[in-house]
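[INFO] parsing input record for Helix-turn-helix
[DEBUG] input buffer:
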Amino acid sequence: MEKYAEIIQSERTKRKLSQQAFAKEIGLSQSSVALIELGKRRPSDKVKERISDFFNLCKFQV
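[DEBUG] output buffer:
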């Protein structure tokens, strides 16, 4: 698994969010979140920014 995928999944599960709930918060589909967490899809810069803002992380961590 890619490092960014591990970080995203870890942060999401720490907050007890389902993929569906997290996806809704950042404006993605649940399937997109699943692919990102599996390391099969790399998030765009725009999506990285939304994720890092949501989790209050540095963009370089995502």
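[INFO] Helices lie at 3-14, 19-26, 30-37, 45-55.
[INFO] shutting down worker
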